[in-house]
Fold this sequence. Notes:
Chain A: Keywords: 4Fe-4S, Heme, Iron, Iron-sulfur, Metal-binding, Oxidoreductase. The complex is a heterodimer. Chain A contains 19 helices and 21 strands. Chain A is an alpha+beta fold. In chain A, a hairpin with a 4-residue loop joins strand 1 and strand 2. In chain A, helix 6 packs across helix 8 (259-273), helix 7 (250-257) packs across helix 8 and helix 14 packs across helix 16 (507-521). The radius of gyration of chain A is 23 Å and the shape is globular. Chain B is of the alpha+beta class. Chain B has one domain (8-104). Classes of the chains: A alpha+beta, B alpha+beta. Chain A binds chain B through residues 26-27, 29, 32-33, 47-52, 80, 94-99, 344, 415-417, 424, 426-427, 430, 473, 476-478, and chain B through 13, 15-20, 56-57, 60-61, 77-80, 83-84, 87-91, 93-95.
Amino acid sequence: MYSYTEFDRDFLARRNAQFRAQVERRIDGSLTEEEFKPLRLMNGLYLQLHAYMLRVAIPYGTLNPAQMRKLAEVADRWDRGYGHFTTRQNLQYNWPRLREVPDMLDALAEVGLHAIQTSGNTIRNVTSDHFAGASADEIADPRPYAELIRQWSTDHPEFQFLGRKFKIAVTGSAQDRAVTRVNDVGLRLVERDGQLGFEVIVGGGLGRTPMIGKVLRDFLPEADLLPYLEAVLTTFNLIGRRDNKYKARIKIAVHEHGIDAIRDRVERHFALIRPTWSGADRDTLARIKADFAPPAFRTRSTAAFDAARDADPVFRSWADTNLTAHRHPEHAIVTISLKSHGATPGDASSDQMRVMADLAERYSYGELRISHEQNAILPHVHKSDLPAIHATLRENGLATANIGLISDIIACPGMDYCALATARSIPVAQKIATRFDELKLEHDIGPLKIKISGCINACGHHHVGHIGILGLDRAGVETYQITLGGDGTEEATLGERTGPGFSYDEIVPAIERIVETYLDLRESPAETFLETWRRLGAAPFKAALYPETRANAA
Amino acid sequence: MKRAFTPKVVTASDLFEGDVIYLTADDRWSRQLEEAEVITDEAHAQLRLLFAEAQQNRVVGAYLAEVAIGPNGPEPTHFREEFRRSGPSNYFHGKQQARQQSSQQPRA
């Protein structure tokens, strides 16, 4: 993992001192709210529905045990003893007080955590594959590049006041777990003729105008990464619209100018600035890469795993659902579900955070990850340790065997917390998970991703959910619109709207009808929901959702 | 034709705590909607809003929220205001918790 240099520590200390002074000046009246707001946002501080909210970056989703323990300590000392992991690999505290936020940031800085650029019209916290450095299908570890981008983009003077926010995601695997095609820039490590480079995707995004990103460069030599990104950002900064907030993202610039015109501008600017890059970024990257050297994987018998799997059906169910193939055959990647049935997706108590930190220290070479799907990960676990890990997780409400299943729901905070939300999302997720747990159908249904957003800004990624749910305010009533067939992987697809929305009380039965339709129509249990949808299209699902329409038409 | 003015309260977020507050008739800020001044006159509403907005060092984001008159005073007419006055639905946090704690305290 990346370790802070003296420079990094000094920078963070100065930045926190600067923000502390800004908070003091807001409190003593020297700064108006209008002046203070962009400053607090740049430091991750929002004012939400019931309280302030502090959004802490978990850079590219990687945490060490000391950092996780500090997140727990901050939750206990200054918040309400829990944290909410988000769809951009951040952690949100929902109840901080303005005067105490500078102390929280100083405490986080002790372990190299910060909230810089987790909001505001800047380059946001860079996200990545939560299985980076561990998965069997990886070309190269994307995290050194993500860290390089973080260092370059943090406090970058040219990009502190962009027309709108800018999100970057990086992956090193063919299987896209970082939803690169719906970011402002998506970077996919690829190999060509033995050379490492990036496929650069631009102009993806969800929100009110969802778009799948387009390929800007099919092969960018990895040494050109930062100058090329600089050319993209400069182009966006110049031609991105500032007349209308809703048309200010780069996806709109790509849509209005066309990908070819954007490419011409980027390539011209890139040619201009490339010679001015002296190679200091290469030295930095080399040092970062050394920090991400893989651990020396232990080798010993995995018999204990096989024995436990044969003997204990609960362990087997968990192992079959929550483990992913590791690049080292005796190891496994463990996904810890933060979605126990009926709980708030992505929430972890401070005690649970400490348990996960202890497990990472003892069994996962000191590494933890947070996924954009709001779960935690022990990336490198020797299989013989899995029974002990499972036992500890069970004791702490963390052993739900539902990864990738219907109750592993992404949900934004919605109107329970968010000032922008138009409807709630958390209770809808809770009710769906509880209902399908009662029906005991979850494992029979198989892979199915439900994603819920409480407004059109789509923090809950509903457009790329196999079943997407969007909460709206229709004439003063919470109303939920359904989209079907979305996909956030390398085959990125936007879901298709089914028709009129459903009320808060109707939405769970509506989801149930969709799932029943799938179970009736699938060719075999091996055909997933998404495959059935792709084979049959919308008609049978619409008929199940709107039986009265069919009756009227007949 | 001009729409009839419906009853309003002035509400905002507290600068320090970030929680929901309401302007009272005697110029205080209360954490309870029941204590808010119910405004039935449009011109008066604008004056009260200006009065609230001028308090930059105490409140953030003041606005007029519509209310209905119930047996215990003003009540929200929109679900967003209902959540603001009570708290989130996934945990018993926020105003609902504060209210319970204050009602459990023995009276002097």
